[in-house]
Every structure is written in C-alpha cells, then in structure tokens.
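Technical appendix A lists one of the benchmark inputs used to test multi-chain prediction within the project. The record comprises two sequence entries:
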Amino acid sequence: MIRNFITSVLFTGLLGGMITPAQAATTCQSSTHKSCAKFNSKSELIRPTGYREWIYVGAPLTPNHLNNGKAAFPEFHNVYIDPASWTAWKKSGKFRDGTVIVKELVSVGSKKTFSGNGYFMGEYLGLEAMVKSKKRFPKAAGNWGFFRFTNEDFKGLKTVAGVLPESACLSCHTPNAQQDNVFIQHYPVLRGAKAMGEAGTGGK
Amino acid sequence: MIRNFITSVLFTGLLGGMITPAQAATTCQSSTHKSCAKFNSKSELIRPTGYREWIYVGAPLTPNHLNNGKAAFPEFHNVYIDPASWTAWKKSGKFRDGTVIVKELVSVGSKKTFSGNGYFMGEYLGLEAMVKSKKRFPKAAGNWGFFRFTNEDFKGLKTVAGVLPESACLSCHTPNAQQDNVFIQHYPVLRGAKAMGEAGTGGK
C-alpha cells in the first residue's frame, strides 16, 4: 500500500497535477481517483476496506429502549464518506459521481459509565454502503445504489454485495433526506463543511 | 497547506524515509512529525485545526433525559486521534509521546426522525483536547495534559487554552479509563485497531 501511495504521489501528484491531503489518505485510490467503489464482473460491490480512516460524518442512534424494544435500527451507525469525495464536498457542496458513503453498525455496548447513564459503543455488527454512479444506476434517485455487507447473524461481513432494490433504502432516503438522498440533517460534519473549504474541517 | 504537504512528502517521505497515508492526511504536520500539539510561549495549547479529518474513534453520549435532566456531559462527544499517533497505535497498541486526542462537543439536535426515536447530532458546542507529553507533563498520570477550548456560552472557541488542573479531568480518567487514561472501552475503533495494523482499519 505504501508503495502504491508513493507511486501515486509521484505520478499523479507531483508530476501530473495536485494532490490533496484527503486524497492521499484514502486506501482506495484508483489510478484515476474517480471512485473508491470497486465492482466485480457480476456488478456486485466489493467490500470497501480502510473506511475507518475515511472522513467520519456522524453517528445517529435509535435505541430499542426509545422504540418499544423494536427499533428498526437499534445500533449506532458510524457514517463515513470517502476522502476524495469529501474533498469535492468541501469545494462544491455536492456529492460527486463516484461518492461512497458507508455506515458501520456498532452495538450499544453498555448503558452506564462513571459519568452517568447513556449509550456507549460495543462491538461491530455490520457494514452498509451507498454508491453514487450515473453509469451504474442511471434510473435510481440521485443515481445511488445501496449495498449490505452485514451477515444475517451480525458476525463477520460478506465479501461482495449486490445492489438492493430501491424499496429497501431509497424509498425512505429520497423523501426524508435533506440533500441528494443523504441525511445531512443528522451529519454535522457534512453540514459544517458544505462548500466551506478548509473552514469546515474543524477549529478554523 | 498543499505546498507544505508536497514539501513534506519530498523531504520527509521520498528523500528522507517513509511516509504513511495516515501521516500524509494530517493538517498538523511538523517538520519532525513528532506531535500535532503546538504550544505558545506561555505553555498554552494552540487550538488544533483540521481534526474532523483525523481518525474518529467513537461518540459516547450521556443525555440529560437519562440523568434526571442534569447530565454532566449532556452532548455527543465526537472523539478523534491525530493521524500519526493513530499509525503508532495500529503498530504498537500504545499512545505515543505527542499523541493528541480531541473531543468535539455536539448538541443533541433532535430526538425523532422517520426511522424512530433517538439521538441525532445538532450543532457544534465546543472542543476539548488531551496531549501526551513527557516533557511538558512529567508528573501527570500518563504524562497527559487536558485543555478546554469551549467558550462559557458554548459558542465559538478559544484560540488557546492553558492546561487544566489534574482534578478537572485526570481524577476521573485515571481510575476509570481502560488504558493509559483513555476510555478505549467506549471507542471501538481504538479497541479494534490496537496493535492490529491495517486489519483494524475496517473491512479487512
């Protein structure tokens, strides 16, 4: 990976143009930097890797205890955007074609700590992703495709995932998400950095 | 920043040694890469910047409604570690000298959404940091110093912060934190990557 990175800096960055720190951070660089999404010959999305080093945007929680023990999504969702698409978002305030957003499912591990009662992250349960691609999803709202790598037993992850039917995700995302099928209303990092450049990266 | 980055790659990375993607991502590189913490002549910590592009480790929450309306920390805490120290953590499972961990305070913005009742992040309220430095905090537990940039009105941030007395933070961190005064029991990203190398970065 390091060798690939240095090669990329040399040919894409220093000799070929400009490279940004965020782009340099990704572990999913293609030679064209177009997208972190990789598909196999069956049009299945290959499980993204290294996303805990992507840009975190927020962690919504709808716990069981506030939903009569029957929450549709009882776990924490750690949500990340890939670094190159984050760079585009800071500049344009839009999700570029090729954007990958992942949510990692994490259990509510405990509900009490020394500082009080609350919610604290336990163990990883799963991984889901949405990919924006005009070429692959020309008819879907916003050209987004949705993928689930979560195993049925919430242990381990599938290595590939086929696109889910629109009824599984977009039917809720499209009418409720604040921008382009993404719930930026729940993601302060995206809201704060929207077309804000470096001012949105914190502390500036 | 881009200029500094390219200079750094040239002299520190390609000519002088090895650079990792995580190190390249930091917006707080010094010429020696020793620490993201910068102090002024009064030994005050200069507010870190760009931390929303650091490595997110977890988001604990102790909301008012679970603590009789009087939570000590009623907001979300988005917690990040600086990239170079994350690289060290992945390798050694220890917090290196120079580590900076920040927590950004974010309000509970709403408690209801289309998918159920819960907790959703609202607006930024403040910023706190802990810095591990044997030189600056030789007598403190773990050599950690704690700093608060949060304004009294929870709007805006202070530009510099003096070290807090140990009674303000360490008195709780030291006896309760799982490792070296850091609550890794609440941070799945740190637990999962402890001395795990790239296997801890997600999806591998």
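Chain A has one domain: 8-200. The longest strand of chain A covers residues 116-132. Comparable benchmark entries are summarised in Table A2.
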